Structures are given as C-alpha cells and as structure tokens.
C-alpha cells in the first residue's frame, strides 16, 4: 500500500483530472463532498489531501476545522 492522496472537490471533472495525474505515483481516493471525505477517512487516513475550499454543504474550511477536532485526523 502506497501513500494515499485524497482529492475532495464537488467537480467531477476536477476529480477525474487530479486522479489521472496522481494515480501513477500514489494511491488516490476521491470524494465529491466534505461528508464523503469523512466516510473515506474512516477506512484510511490520507497522507495528503487536496481540498476544494468552495463546496456546497461543508466547505473546505469546515472540513479542516472538523479534522482538527478529531485526534486521529488532527495531524
């Protein structure tokens, strides 16, 4: 299992482009919302996250705040 990069974006095109670029060198997980990202993080914590700041529902800043509240995701 390699390093995991999680891409979180509400644009399917952005998710596809980023995934295609990164999949050569990394394991890639994609989520189309902040809530979906947290579901994926329950299975495996990413080493790096590329996070869209402007998303409906939970925006990127809210995702970061919620991650900082969780001891497992804080760092």
Summarize the structure.
This protein has helices at 12-22, 34-43, 60-69, and strands spanning 4-8, 27-31, 48-51. It has 75 residues and is α/β, with parallel strands linked by helices.
Describe this structure in words.
- Helix content is 41%, strand content 19%.
- The protein has a 3-stranded parallel sheet with strand order 2-1-3.
- With 75 residues, it is α/β, with parallel strands linked by helices.
- It is globular.
- Helix 1 links the parallel strand 1 and strand 2.
Q: Given the C-alpha coordinates, what overall shape results? A: globular
Instruction: Describe the strand arrangement of the main beta sheet, using strand numbers.
Output: 2-1-3
- What is the overall number of helices? 3
Query: Helix amount, in percent?
Result: 40-55%
Question: How many strands, which pairing sense, and closed or not: the largest β-sheet?
Answer: 3 strands, parallel
What are the segments in which pLDDT stays under 50 over at least 5 consecutive residues? Answer: none
Radius of gyration: 12 Å
- Strand residue percentage: 15-25%
The averaged pLDDT comes out at: 95
Query: Strand tally, please?
Result: 3
Q: What is the terminal separation in angstroms?
A: 20 Å
Question: Based on helices, strands and strand pairing, what is the structural class?
Answer: alpha/beta
Properties at a glance:
alpha/beta, 41% helix
Task: Summarize the SSE layout with pairings.
Blueprint: E1 4-8, H1 12-22, E2 27-31, H2 34-43, E3 48-51, H3 60-69
Parallel strand pairs: 1-2, 1-3
């Amino acid at each position: 299992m390699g390093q995991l990069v999680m891409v979180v974006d509400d644009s399917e095109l952005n998710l596809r482009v980023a995934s295609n670029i990164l999949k050569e060198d990394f394991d890639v997980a994609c989520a189309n919302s902040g809530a979906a990202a947290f579901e994926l993080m329950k299975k495996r914590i990413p080493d790096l996250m590329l996070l869209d700041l402007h998303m409906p529902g939970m925006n990127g800043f809210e995702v970061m705040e919620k991650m900082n509240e969780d001891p497992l995701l804080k760092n």
